[in-house]
Amino acid sequence: MSRQLKSIDISDYPTLERIADEVSRTGEPRLLQGHGEDLAIIVPIAEARSPSLRPTTESDFQSFLSAAGGWADIDTDKLVADIYADRRRA
What we know:
Blueprint: H1 14-26, E1 30-34, E2 37-42, H2 45-48, H3 58-67, H4 76-89
Antiparallel strand pairs: 1-2
């Protein structure tokens, strides 16, 4: 399911535009706070994109293959029982 983000033109908000430019330039997200509360996070576009949108590399493919069978020795019935037991404790 895809979600369309609302766009806001910040051209008339020089302080916000400066912060957005800095986030884009440095690649580092920023947490916006007001009156002691966390309000929003500004992240660079490259970081906000879904990993499925970036090209798959050979390294990605090899990592995927190496994970195959990684849980083969897990007793799935015991795992499910443990999960339900943990839920009852919480």
